[in-house]
C-alpha cells in the first residue's frame, strides 16, 4: 500500500526515524484539503513510541477540523539532525522522517487535557505555565491522535 523509498542508499533505520520523531519539536501535518488540494501546516506534537502514535492539539473550529472530519488519512513529516562532514563542510547532511496514518479526535475532555499537558511538557518550561494555558484554552481545544501505519526515514546531503 505504501511506496518504498526509491533511493535505498539514503534510507535510515526505523529506529533512527523514531528517534528523530522523539527528539524534534515541530513537524508538518498534511491532510486532504478542500476541493482535492493538499493542506499542510506546521504543528507542535508529541511522539509516543510505545503506542506508535503522534499527538497534537488544535482549536475546535477551522480548516483543520473540517478536513479531518471529511478524511482521516494524514501524513506527518519532520526533519533535523543536521550535521557536517569535515571533508565537505559546505554541504550538510539532514535526516527526515515521514509517517503515514489515520488521525482521530480524543473526545473526552479530561483525557484530552491530560494529553495536552503531557505534550506541553516538551515545549513549556514548567507545570505552572502549562496549567495557565490549559485553564485558558481547554474548552476551545481538541486533542488529536495519529495512529502511525507506515514510517520511513532518510538522510540526504544538501549538495
Number of continuous helical runs: 4
Largest sheet: number of strands, sense, barrel closure? 7 strands, antiparallel
The strand line-up of the biggest sheet is: 2-1-5-6-7-4-3
Report the mean per-residue pLDDT as an integer. Answer: 87
N-end to C-end Cα span: 31 Å
Rounded Rg: 17 Å
Number of strands: 7
Which structural category do the helix and sheet elements fall into?
Answer: alpha+beta
Helix content bin: 25-40%
Give the ordered list of helices and strands: HEEEEHEEHHE
Low-confidence stretches: none
Fraction in beta strands: 35-45%
Question: How would you describe this protein?
Answer:
This protein has 159 residues and is an alpha+beta fold. It has 4 helices and 7 strands; from the N terminus they run H-E-E-E-E-H-E-E-H-H-E. Strands 2-1-5-6-7-4-3 form a 7-stranded antiparallel sheet, sandwiched between helices. A hairpin with a 4-residue loop joins strand 3 (46-48) and strand 4 (53-59). The radius of gyration is 17 Å and the shape is globular.
Key features of this structure:
4 helices, 159 residues, single chain, alpha+beta, seven-stranded antiparallel beta sheet, globular, 7 strands
What does the secondary structure layout of this molecule look like, with pairings?
Layout: H1 14-23, E1 26-32, E2 38-44, E3 46-48, E4 53-59, H2 63-70, E5 73-83, E6 93-106, H3 109-120, H4 127-137, E7 141-157
Antiparallel strand pairs: 1-2, 1-5, 3-4, 4-7, 5-6, 6-7
Helix pairs in contact: 3-4
In short:
With 159 residues, the protein is an alpha+beta fold. It has helices spanning 14-23, 63-70, 109-120, 127-137, and strands spanning 26-32, 38-44, 46-48, 53-59, 73-83, 93-106, 141-157. Helix 3 packs antiparallel against helix 4.
Amino acid at each position: 500500500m505504501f511506496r518504498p523509498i526509491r533511493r535505498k542508499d539514503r534510507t535510515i533505520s526505523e529506529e533512527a526515524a523514531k528517534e528523530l520523531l522523539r527528539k524534534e519539536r515541530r513537524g508538518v501535518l498534511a491532510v486532504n484539503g478542500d476541493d482535492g488540494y493538499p493542506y499542510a501546516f506546521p504543528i507542535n506534537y508529541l511522539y509516543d513510541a510505545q503506542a506508535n502514535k503522534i499527538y497534537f492539539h488544535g482549536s475546535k473550529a477551522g480548516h483543520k477540523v473540517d478536513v479531518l472530519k471529511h478524511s482521516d488519512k494524514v501524513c506527518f513529516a519532520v526533519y533535523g539532525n543536521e550535521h557536517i562532514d569535515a571533508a565537505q563542510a559546505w554541504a550538510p547532511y539532514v535526516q527526515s522522517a515521514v509517517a503515514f496514518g489515520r488521525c482521530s479526535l480524543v473526545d473526552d475532555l479530561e483525557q484530552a487535557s491530560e494529553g495536552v499537558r503531557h505534550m506541553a511538557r516538551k515545549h513549556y518550561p514548567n507545570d505552572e505555565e502549562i496549567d495557565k494555558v490549559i485553564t485558558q484554552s481547554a474548552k476551545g481545544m481538541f486533542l488529536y491522535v495519529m495512529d502511525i501505519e507506515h514510517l520511513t526515514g532518510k538522510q540526504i546531503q544538501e549538495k
